[in-house]
């Protein structure tokens, strides 16, 4: 299935949140990548750390405009990529970007809820070698369920990679205040409990967790690896 074919997910995305995201990004999607590169820090570091095995499968939850999938697909030319997003508006932009890059044969997109998805129904793939979530958990209601769903969809030896806003703990208070106010305009809320949730889920599944603080706490980067 190519990037231009967007199957409905198992069940329907939550209407309220889907409509909210479509409303937020109906126009923003056209300038999203130009503006976000200045403050969505750590995304390229996440991609370089995926270390996808040859012939591997990679899923991005909250794929947005397709920016990350395009870069990852270029870096790992032997892998197959899959993207899930709740916003039809964002998926329209992602589909066009993937087609422009000539990647439609290697990338499949679907509309769905990252907290409750059926990978087999959406993509005809049950498990993935890598799953990554880039600056999406801070926008997803019930984001903890996304962590659980992602880990459940990994193959043995697979890994979940997350980058998102940290708590800016080593940055000036005025900066934190301004950043939180700005992010709130886009329904973004840094997840204070992210480390605790990842630690708990990792322990429950016998997985290992590597958690890093970037840019004085501006961003957090985490990798959870499932045992073989």
What does it look like?
This protein has 228 residues and is α/β, with parallel strands linked by helices. The chain has a single domain, classed as Rossmann fold (3-Layer(aba) Sandwich), CATH 3.40.50.150. A 7-stranded mixed sheet has the order 3-2-1-4-5-7-6, with helices on both faces. It has helices at residues 15-28, 32-36, 43-48, 67-75, 88-100, 119-123, 143-152, 173-184, 194-205, and strands at residues 57-61, 80-85, 107-111, 128-134, 154-165, 208-214, 219-225. One of its GO terms (molecular function) is transferase activity. InterPro entries: CFA/CMAS, Methyltransf_25, SAM-dependent_MTases_sf. This is S-adenosylmethionine-diacylgycerolhomoserine-N-methlytransferase. Pfam families: Methyltransf_25.
Overview features:
Rossmann fold; alpha/beta; globular; about 40% helix; about 230 residues; seven-stranded mixed beta sheet
Write the layout of secondary structure elements.
Blueprint: H1 15-28, H2 32-36, H3 43-48, E1 57-61, H4 67-75, E2 80-85, H5 88-100, E3 107-111, H6 119-123, E4 128-134, H7 143-152, E5 154-165, H8 173-184, H9 194-205, E6 208-214, E7 219-225
Parallel strand pairs: 1-2, 1-4, 2-3, 4-5
Antiparallel strand pairs: 5-7, 6-7
Helix pairs in contact: 7-9
InterPro entries: CFA/CMAS, Methyltransf_25, SAM-dependent_MTases_sf
Pfam family, one: Methyltransf_25
Organism: Mesorhizobium muleiense
